[in-house]
Amino acid sequence: MPPPLQRGRPLKWEMREIVDAIFYMLRGGIPWSLPPREFPPKSTVFHGFCVFRDTCLFERIHHAPVMADRERVGRDASPSAAIIDSQSAKTVESGVPRGYDAGKTVKGRRRHTLVDTDGRALPLDPHRADIQDRDAGGPVLKASRALFPFVTKPFADSAYTHGHVKDATDIAVEIVTEITARIGFVVLPRRWVVERFFAWINRNRRLAKDVEATLKSARAFLYAASIMLLIRRLARPA
């Protein structure tokens, strides 16, 4: 949490109440103008979210529970293998920037992420849907090097075979190809983990459709949703 200010008017609402309101609105898909009466006023909640968003506080908080949950299950704090993929989501009229994903016929944004082999998100990066995986995969891998430098084996689908991904970092991406002559739905090795993560965060109604006006707000809510997942896993009995 940000330290209390040394000057100015004392806070009327506890920071915990503001954070609870942000998570409640994320989970329920509630507009900023309609918070329940039990929570702080809408201007207070939105201002608190803007502070968290503009200071990248959700991103900085996210790193600690990732490492703690890995250690809880007996793994090293920093992963060595990961899976990269993206999800396209429609946006509302106010959502800019946005683009058109011709492959999935979706006009909106694309959520790119790198997850470890248990499905914990590492970096999260939303961008326009018309930016292809081959172009956005490199920046995601670069972003992971600062906090997770021991990732040496990322798994991906055939969209990441482009040189933009191979030349972005010094790690080699392993392509998991689809099973030939398959009939119906078949779970692909490794790649199903990232699809499960997207299904988990889509339980938050605010993420079922991208309603944020800016990419910064969309990124903050993605990290907030991942934090909620990690906190619930940490709260499980040993």
SSE layout and pairing:
Layout: H1 15-28, H2 42-54, H3 57-72, E1 81-90, E2 99-101, E3 106-116, E4 121-128, H4 133-147, E5 153-156, H5 163-166, E6 174-175, H6 192-201, H7 205-208, H8 215-234
Parallel strand pairs: 1-5, 5-6
Antiparallel strand pairs: 1-3, 2-3, 3-4
Helix pairs in contact: 1-2, 2-8, 3-8
CATH fold name of the domain at 79-215: Nucleotidyltransferase, domain 5
Largest sheet: 6 strands, mixed
| Share of helix, binned | 40-55%
Uncertain stretches of 5 or more adjacent residues: none
Query: What is the total tally of β strands?
Result: 6
* CATH homologous superfamily title of the domain at 79-215: Ribonuclease H-like superfamily/Ribonuclease H
Q: Could you say what the CATH architecture of the domain at 79-215 is?
A: 2-Layer Sandwich
Globally, the shape reads globular
Number of helices: 8
Q: What proportion of the residues form beta strands (DSSP E)?
A: 15-25%
Give the CATH level 1 class of the domain at 79-215.
Answer: Alpha Beta
Give the structural class. Answer: alpha/beta
Rg result: 19 Å
Order of helices and strands: HHHEEEEHEHEHHH
Mean pLDDT: 88
How far apart, in Å, are the first and last alpha carbons? 27 Å
